[in-house]
Specification:
alpha/beta, two-stranded antiparallel sheet
Length: 305
């Protein structure tokens, strides 16, 4: 208790009696603490310590972090030896700055590439003036929704990996590459929004929680899809003959997960789909024989020369 604390302090601190006017006066304040009049305050001699209240200016400053002010952006441009005139810059490096909000970019109308990686951004916003933007990097932030991209009608590449997104939505038709690994995609309808970008050709969905094999039905409707990464998703174990199935059903796929799909791989997979394992073996042997024939022809040419 506060009284016991005071008694211990008197016992170990020389001259404590001289500091307090009388022994009876000091406990009067300590009694107030014990009585629970204000449990958030601790009185030590004449100093009062009080924890900051929620909503105070100090708490707000902690939560917001650095602001993306006009001056802060200009300072970064100067550090990177870029133009002091905002509209002349076609790339802006605002990554690893701790910014909590996208703002004050109105004058940077000539941007083609914007780096906002590893900040504390929770919302995609205030990009209406970046009409020429082609690449937007927002990985490692706090974003939970893809939004406010409709005016970016030249956007080619979007990276929102390492965020908290549960659904792919609001994509622009011009999008070519989407990197959305390490998010919170789970059900098959979470990737329905890919159909809003019919020309998309590169998709990284790795390390989500996709588990429904029906996602193939959606991916099959993307005729330009050539690169796909599904590593780290439970769905891989739920699709029997996973690599063969995706190779056959995604006719333009050139790269799946961690390795390419060569013409031989596609030919053998399609043979397997037509006639099972025996047809696959025959097709593989045909490729081997064809390769041997080319080698012999080359050998003949070299010996005659």
């Amino acid at each position: 208790s506060a009284k016991q604390w005071y008694q211990r302090r008197v016992a170990i601190t020389p001259g404590i009696e001289e500091i307090s006017s009388t022994p009876s006066e000091a406990p009067a304040k300590l009694d107030d603490v014990d009585s629970g009049q204000d449990s958030n305050k601790i009185v030590i001699d004449e100093i009062t310590l009080e924890p900051p209240k929620e909503g105070s200016s100090k708490t707000k400053e902690k939560n917001i972090g650095p602001s993306m002010t006009v001056e802060a952006i200009k300072k970064i441009c100067k550090k990177n030896k870029q133009y002091s005139t905002p509209e002349l810059n076609d790339i802006l490096y605002l990554h690893f700055q701790g910014f909590g909000k996208i703002e004050n970019l109105d004058l940077y109308t000539g941007l083609k590439c914007l780096w906002l990686e590893a900040n504390g951004i929770s919302k995609i916003e205030n990009l209406d003036r970046q009409k020429e933007l082609k690449c937007l990097y927002l990985q490692q932030n706090l974003i939970s929704k893809i939004e406010n991209l409709e005016l970016l009608d030249q956007l080619h590449t979007l990276n929102v990996s390492n965020n908290y997104i549960t659904k792919i939505e609001n994509l622009v038709p011009t999008l070519h590459t989407l990197q959305i690994s390490k998010n919170r995609l789970k059900e098959s309808d979470a990737i329905d929004g890919l159909l809003d970008a019919p020309n998309i050709s590169v998709i990284d969905l790795s390390n989500n929680n996709l588990e429904d094999p029906c996602i193939i039905d959606i991916l099959e409707k993307l005729p330009s899809l050539s690169v796909l990464n599904l590593m780290g998703n439970p769905v891989i174990k739920k699709i029997k003959n996973y690599r063969k199935v995706l190779t056959v059903r995604l006719s333009n796929l050139k790269y799946l997960d961690d390795r390419p799909i060569f013409p031989k791989d596609r030919a053998t997979a399609e043979a397997w789909a037509r006639g099972g394992v025996e047809a696959e073996k025959e097709e593989r042997q045909r490729w081997i024989n064809q390769k041997r024939k080319k080698y012999r022809l080359r050998l003949c040419v070299d010996t005659t020369a």
